[in-house]
Amino acid sequence: IYFFVNKRWIRSAFLNQIIYKTLEDSWPKGRYPFLIIFLELPPEMIDVNVHPTKQEVRFREIYCIQEAIKMALERTIKSKISLSFEEDIPISLDTPLKTENFQVAYKEVSFKDYTPPFHILGQLWGTYLVCETERGLLLIDQHAAHERLIYEKLKELYERGTKIQEFLKPILLEVSSAEKEILEELLPHLKKIGFVLEPFGERSYLIRAVPSLFVNQDIREILLKILSDLCPFKPRKLSELLPELFKSMACHLAVRAHDILTSQEIDFLIKEIILLDTSHCPHGRPFYKLFTKEEIEKLFHRS
């Protein structure tokens, strides 16, 4: 079995253990598979400084990596692979070796990929949502999960537009010179999301409408926080600025840690995030962790 992480060959007892554990019930005993596994991971998920020759690495987000490998192996085993040869193919040792590139698509393990129906138990420390599943105990970081949900909705609003809420009385927004500079740059993009702002004096604007997502929010305070987040951001290429805008908006709109949610709010939030195709917030933090039944039973020395 050979492992390559970000195109670098490594040795890993941890990955070997995942392979053999996954195959133990489906692979003939006494026989060993030939596997070459390529992992493409964000740099922050691995630590290459644990071995002088960098042939070993330490993984972060171990559970996500473990589940991705298990899912890939299980799908491969279940698929029907048939190799047939009509005639023997002569092989000459003098023939130059021909190689072809191939890729295995790596898909980030998402919340919906392997989360079965579950029973919501409640909220822990006003920060984590707790659910019982067939596979174990699920903890969800409510802020990080809600943040990702809003981030995805903002991207959709930018592409498709949205309903807006007009104010009977516009809200006055006063900004600094630095904030005005970034706001002027953002105005056409804010308009695409559903904001209607018009200049009102040298460093003032009237907020006449907002997207429905921002209704019942302190819109002046949120916009000032967003401008504060984005003022230091350079360079300001649109491809880099927009994700930062959406990240900042999502962060300030999302429920916070220590916000006490009602059972209806928890139920609604989970039903929304279960549809996400990712397991991380826009800043890269995982928003949930599944503690399997086996892991929990090991804590109590149960066999």
UniProtKB/TrEMBL annotation:
<dbReference type="InterPro" id="IPR042120">
    <property type="entry name" value="MutL_C_dimsub"/>
</dbReference>
<dbReference type="InterPro" id="IPR038973">
    <property type="entry name" value="MutL/Mlh/Pms-like"/>
</dbReference>
<dbReference type="InterPro" id="IPR020568">
    <property type="entry name" value="Ribosomal_Su5_D2-typ_SF"/>
</dbReference>
<dbReference type="GO" id="GO:0016887">
    <property type="term" value="F:ATP hydrolysis activity"/>
</dbReference>
<protein>
    <recommendedName>
        <fullName>DNA mismatch repair protein MutL</fullName>
    </recommendedName>
</protein>
<dbReference type="Pfam" id="PF08676">
    <property type="entry name" value="MutL_C"/>
</dbReference>
<dbReference type="GO" id="GO:0006298">
    <property type="term" value="P:mismatch repair"/>
</dbReference>
<dbReference type="InterPro" id="IPR014721">
    <property type="entry name" value="Ribsml_uS5_D2-typ_fold_subgr"/>
</dbReference>
<feature type="domain" description="DNA mismatch repair protein S5">
    <location>
        <begin position="1"/>
        <end position="78"/>
    </location>
</feature>
<dbReference type="InterPro" id="IPR037198">
    <property type="entry name" value="MutL_C_sf"/>
</dbReference>
<dbReference type="GO" id="GO:0032300">
    <property type="term" value="C:mismatch repair complex"/>
</dbReference>
<dbReference type="InterPro" id="IPR042121">
    <property type="entry name" value="MutL_C_regsub"/>
</dbReference>
<dbReference type="GO" id="GO:0140664">
    <property type="term" value="F:ATP-dependent DNA damage sensor activity"/>
</dbReference>
<dbReference type="InterPro" id="IPR014790">
    <property type="entry name" value="MutL_C"/>
</dbReference>
<feature type="domain" description="MutL C-terminal dimerisation">
    <location>
        <begin position="120"/>
        <end position="261"/>
    </location>
</feature>
<dbReference type="Pfam" id="PF01119">
    <property type="entry name" value="DNA_mis_repair"/>
</dbReference>
<dbReference type="GO" id="GO:0005524">
    <property type="term" value="F:ATP binding"/>
</dbReference>
<dbReference type="GO" id="GO:0030983">
    <property type="term" value="F:mismatched DNA binding"/>
</dbReference>
<dbReference type="InterPro" id="IPR013507">
    <property type="entry name" value="DNA_mismatch_S5_2-like"/>
</dbReference>
